[in-house]
Amino acid sequence: MANRFTRRALLSGLGATLATPALALAPTRSLRPVPRGAAPIAVAPPEYASLIRDAGLGGQVTFAVADAKTGAFIETHNADVRLPAASVAKAATAYYALDRLGPEYRFVTRVLATAPIVNGRLDGDLILEGGGDPTLDTDAMADLVLALKATGLIEVRGALRIDARALPNLPWIDPDQPDHVSYNPAIAGLNLNFNRVHFEWKRAKDGYDITMQARARRFRPAVDVATMSLEDRKMPVYTYERRSGVDRWTVAKGALGRDGARWLPVRDPAAYAADVFMTLARSNGIVLRRGPNVLQPVAATELVAHESAPLTEIAADMLEYSTNLTAESLGITASRNGGARPPSLIRSAREMNKWLNGAVGARSAGFVDHSGLGYGSRVTPQDMVRILQSAAGNGALKPLLKDIKVEAPGAVVRAKTGTLNFVSGLAGYVDAPNGRSLTFAIFSADLERRDAIDVANRERPPGARSWARRARGLQKSLIGRWLALSV
């Protein structure tokens, strides 16, 4: 598309860096000495084709940038090509959830009883009911137990039952990821610690001391639903097997240093939550036995409850830290609030796509989940811009996006990043120093190179880190170009 910016000089100091254009904002004034008192000679910023060429990414690069007030596209490149959005999809999910649920929506986790408490005894079942809260942690669960103790409960004649029906029970987000990556956890209506268990090792006299804990800031109970065994090998680092209701991990001794820790995914969130709740209850004098999960509505009375932070806070944290479980929980909950009962991520994503392509004005949104982790998700940059333009109308999304640092005094960039192996995206808003605002989306992908990676190397494939660095440099260079041309 032809450039429609006015080619004027950039504000004093903007882009006056000596870094290469592919890694920083390119200078737009001549660096040649000029006579004292004379104005610097204005030069046009590099053409986007040269910026793309210098980045050396291979594959495809696409972008679209529009005037935020009018919505008119100003400059585009391959803007109708559908590429993976990676975690940029979370911006669309946040907008979807804010519209369907409202900014003050809160997830509620409840403890229910199927009979009255009489003299401290419950002649019935205790039900731990999840509301889909993706942020529930062990500390919050401990507070639930303390509140339960304050009711006077000391004995439960029935069983502890878990109700996780608020969301579909899914063992992972993307089945094509390595077993051990914590960004690909299970999903359920009752989630705990982002459905991760904390594995820690410390060198001891006779080998290593290892722990598997439901760790939070105040409490860190050991768990029974996940175990770790050390084996004398160098590779693979981890192996995983689910057997007899337990996540059974092994780790290669040769891969461990003196000490360290990492989070591992949990595949049965209901069992994990029950394990931790029973441990915390026992430490407060309430002994429970595990009963079957709740599969149908049960007549019960609320005893205590925990409310999450409002949706705006949850969405802001999701956009900053790019938590996949949060995105999926928000997206499915939004779909269900709209009347659908999607049994899977792809069905829920179709509900979001329908909304984006209809009410919002996108034309080809094709997400397969709400986090952007799934391989099949695709969107064009011009559609992503349309989504962001629509979101700007109510002002709810823009303040939640992360500040992106650019070497342009006075410019403010708020956007969502996205990174997968040989896939990079950035989409959001630019406020120029002169008061002009832009909406943009940039997607880069070398899908052939990505497809060549085997599953075992998908966590850190060779070359991916340097490729991502160059992609981020290109994004900043393009933003610098648009800022220069918008003066």
How do the strands and helices of this protein lay out in sequence?
Elements: H1 48-55, E1 60-67, E2 73-77, H2 89-101, E3 108-113, E4 117-118, E5 121-122, E6 126-129, H3 138-150, E7 155-156, E8 160-163, E9 196-204, E10 207-213, E11 226-231, E12 238-243, E13 246-252, E14 259-265, H4 269-283, E15 301-307, H5 311-321, H6 324-337, H7 345-360, H8 381-392, E16 402-403, E17 412-420, E18 423-431, E19 437-445, H9 447-451, H10 464-485
Parallel strand pairs: 5-7, 6-8, 11-13
Antiparallel strand pairs: 1-2, 1-19, 3-6, 3-15, 4-5, 9-10, 9-14, 12-13, 16-17, 17-18, 18-19
Question: How would you characterize this protein structure?
Answer:
26% of the residues lie in helices and 23% in strands. It has 2 domains: 48-102 and 311-485, Beta-lactamase (3-Layer(aba) Sandwich), CATH 3.40.710; 108-307, 3-Layer(bba) Sandwich (D-tyrosyl-trna(Tyr) Deacylase, Chain: A). A hairpin with a 2-residue loop joins strand 12 (238-243) and strand 13 (246-252). The strands form 5 sheets. It has a 6-stranded antiparallel β-sheet, with helices on both faces. Helix 2 packs antiparallel against helix 5 and helix 3 (138-150) crosses helix 4 (269-283). It has 10 helices and 19 strands. The protein is of the alpha+beta class. The two termini are 20 Å apart. Residues 1-34 have low confidence and may be disordered.
